[in-house]
Design brief:
- 42% of the residues lie in helices and 24% in strands.
- The protein is of the alpha/beta class.
- It has one domain: Vaccinia Virus protein VP39 (Rossmann fold, 3-Layer(aba) Sandwich).
- It has a seven-stranded mixed beta sheet with strand order 3-2-1-4-5-7-6, sandwiched between helices.
- A hairpin with a 2-residue loop joins strand 6 and strand 7.
- The longest helix is centred in the N-terminal third of the chain and has 16 residues.
- The termini are far apart.
- The structure holds S-adenosylmethionine.
């Protein structure tokens, strides 16, 4: 099974199940035009985030790692009137692109972007949050998880992206800070009595990777 097949199947899922959304498509186009890396979640993954947020009736969401706001828009679209999403981005020009994308998608009134190092921003945030999506620099994943967990309501979900990374996370001898960060995260989550947690491997247009989902007990 090749990446070509995974990509074609993601297109099939998008065509049959995900549907089209002008705001989301424009966000991807303008992110690319602004030179942002093509590392947003896939459309199918974005819709999964949307469904998860809907399923738990999320009213307050925190996102670590905004990029052009693609996953932000998917999550914000699941919020009810009065709901709020806070997204954290370190890079000011990137946050500017995201702001424009989010506003054009019609969810600007629900989304706050905090610019700066996410850990410091997180430490200043007040919970409780219903859902946290962690998708920034992987070397700090454990710290992000800990800070999110301290601000979650019982029954809330913490979702962490990119926890497989082509299987490289298996390499205990890796000196790559991102791999080390994901491995520390697995150890932390696996020993954390406050959550019920698993991880799922995924293939698709973004290659071979995976996500972890922790439900706060
Ligand atoms: C994978 S991208 C986020 C993708 C986005 N969640 C999506 O799917 O549309 C990671 C983002 O995290 C940001 N980032 C990296 N290190 C960060 C840090 N220490 N604090 C806050 N943001 C950071 C990067 O600038 C980048 O925009």
């Amino acid at each position: 099974m090749s990446r070509e097949t995974w990509t074609a199947f993601d297109a099939y899922i998008e065509d049959r199940l995900v549907g089209r959304d002008a705001g989301l498509e424009a966000a991807l186009a303008d992110s690319a035009a602004a030179g942002l890396a093509p590392i947003a979640v896939s459309p199918a993954y974005g819709k999964l985030l949307h469904i998860l947020a809907l399923s738990i009736g999320a009213k307050r969401i925190v996102e670590v790692g905004t990029l052009g706001g693609y996953s932000t828009i998917w999550l914000a679209r699941a919020l009810p009137a009065g709901g709020k999403l806070t997204t954290l981005e370190i890079d000011p020009p990137t946050a500017k692109v995201a702001r424009a994308n989010i506003d054009r998608a019609g969810v600007g009134g629900k989304v706050e972007i905090i610019v700066g190092p996410a850990l410091q921003s997180l430490q200043k945030l007040e919970g409780p949050f219903d859902l946290a999506f962690i998708d920034a620099n992987k070397n700090q994943n454990p710290e992000y998880f800990t800070e999110c967990l301290a601000r979650m309501r019982s029954g809330g979900l913490i979702i962490v992206d990119n926890v497989v990374r082509d299987g490289r996370v298996l390499n205990a001898a890796s000196e790559d800070p991102d791999i080390k960060g994901v491995r520390r995260l697995f150890d932390l989550m696996g020993h954390e009595p406050q959550v019920t947690v698993t991880a799922i491997q995924t293939v698709g247009v973004k290659g071979y990777d995976g996500l972890a989902i922790a439900r706060v007990n």
